[in-house]
Fold this protein.
Amino acid sequence: MTAAPTARIASPTGPASVVRRKRGRFLPYWLLLPGLAWLIIFFVVPMVTLLTTSLQTGDPFNGYSLTWHWANYSDALRTYHAQLIRSFEYAAIATVAALLIAYPLAYAIAFKAGRWKNVLLVLVVAPFFTSFLVRTLAWETILSDNGFVVRVLRDVGLLGANGRLLATPVAVVCGLTYNFLPFMTLPLYASLEKIDPRLVHAANDLYANSFTAFWKVTWPMSMPGVVGGTLLTFIPAAGDFVNVQFLGAPQQQMIGNVIQSRFLVASDYPVASSLSVMLMFLILVLVVVYIRRAGTEELV
Amino acid sequence: MPEGSLQDLRLVGLTKRFGAMTAVDDIELTIPSGSFFALLGPSGCGKTTTLRMVAGLEEPTTGAILIGDQDISRHKPYKRPVNTVFQNYALFPHLDVFENVAFGLRRRGVRNVKQQVDEMLDLVELSGFGPRKPAQLSGGQQQRVALARALINRPQVLLLDEPLGALDLKLRRQMQLELKRIQVEVGLTFVHVTHDQEEAMTMADCIAVMNAGHIEQLGSPTDLYDNPSTVFVANFLGQSNLVRAQVTGTDSDNLLLNVQGNRVVVPRARSRAEGTEVLLGVRPEKLHLAPASADATPAANTFTGTVLDTSFIGVSTQYVVRTAWGQEVTAFAQNDGRAALVPPGADVVLSWHPEHGFCLDASEDLTAGVVIDDEADVRPTAGART
């Protein structure tokens, strides 16, 4: 009497359903496969290639071979430390400038724009509709020696009679700031937009004037956007080479330009690779320290 | 301690217009210092706008707000001796409970913050919750933090904007008693905005019933309930049976009425109506229901009718009775075991003590302030119906 119901219950858990359950358990891994394959082909393989190349010796004519030549790193650093430091300086200045421009912009779009909100957001993204190169070339025209900007600055005496903007650090930093501004604005907007304006009212009610309410409520609550925006600006800006190429001069060369010319002009693959590895490593260290300091994980 | 009457909150001719819409219409109100005062009304009646003007989050179109004899109506919110418990608490999500409560003290540069915050967390029974983030608290606990955050500043007036609206029914009941206890303990003036008449009656010493931007009636909960002065109040605070009546005469203390041939006596002091056409009101629980018997004497203050519906709800039974002239009235009977349940279809006599009737102006809409659904936020008002 007890055997019959047991048998009936047992029957659905026969071999067929065991197979089904097994397949179910492995399904998530199958779904991972395309992404995993992509990462292996386009991230792991190039990384290994880059790391091994950075330890090779040889010359462009006879080819390079892996000799574990660690001195490539010290040689590269000795020759190009100025460009490396300059890259981080320019990127930092451009990041701060972009933050100063983007924060009020994002704030206005999030809280003050009303029905113009969507139009303004489209305008922020609009530059992406044309190519990065074309936009940077446009800046070359804007800042050119007989352009409007230079003429006005000469007239008001901010530039000397022969002063110029092109081929100066100012032009390079301006270009970097401009090009990465949307990357700063959008994360800032996203986190500002989420802040309930009633929290600011509550702060006002609790004896905070507008300024204090901003520093104690709005600013800390927008930190995820600040961290996100600064990273999205700083990282690509540090490795950029286009802005110097069009707006700068050899004196403003950044590490991106060095890597580009070592790779493509001098075919000095080991040094270019070691510079790339160092750039990547330094950015990684800076980012980790920055995120730790900013404590973003506490801000839900 | 400041002299009580010197710190009263006074609203003088307070008006707020949004474009063509008048949200608050020339309100005159004195809220005594140290009282628990409720602004009660349906949504859109202007009660929250009034509160926001007192808090400084909205600027009055005309009129003044005074605390004592100081006009604060043009002061910035952060300059007012007023704090608010917001509807959805508006706790700062990036600060822990301790820092939320300490926020006001820190802005004013007060010393011994830690001791004061700990005392306040004790008062709202949240000691030990200091290091938690608001997101880690339940609704009731967040509500207490919001209360502590406002109370710690010892404002001259504490404003509560539907403070219990987001809580479930059981917790709401519990917090009502708690709020009252805390108010008595700290002795500050509480101004409480709500659309829940039961909440207002449970807690407040004095209630102002608001409708369409003005105050319908002001008084203690018992006063408003027993002696409403308008149809809106009679219907919004509890339920009322309202029937049309003609005034046939007066004697020394009473009005004599004729309701569809029935003689009715109402004390003159309980009449707010003028003229010969009036509305007679009786609360359902004041109606005594008895089976009709053969020896019925045509006494004053009785109606005869037929029971349409009998709903037994435990402590009481709710009857819907159709009167001889076809109007439906409601009567509540306590289930104290003295009377048997009257089944639908039975003929009954409804009677009431003359002291329990009231007369209202007959020109008013009978359905003004009727509460359709107890849980719903949107309630029809006199304005919405006409």
Observations:
- Residues 374-386 of chain B have pLDDT under 50 and may be disordered.
- Residues 144 and 155 of chain B are 17 Å apart (CA to CA).
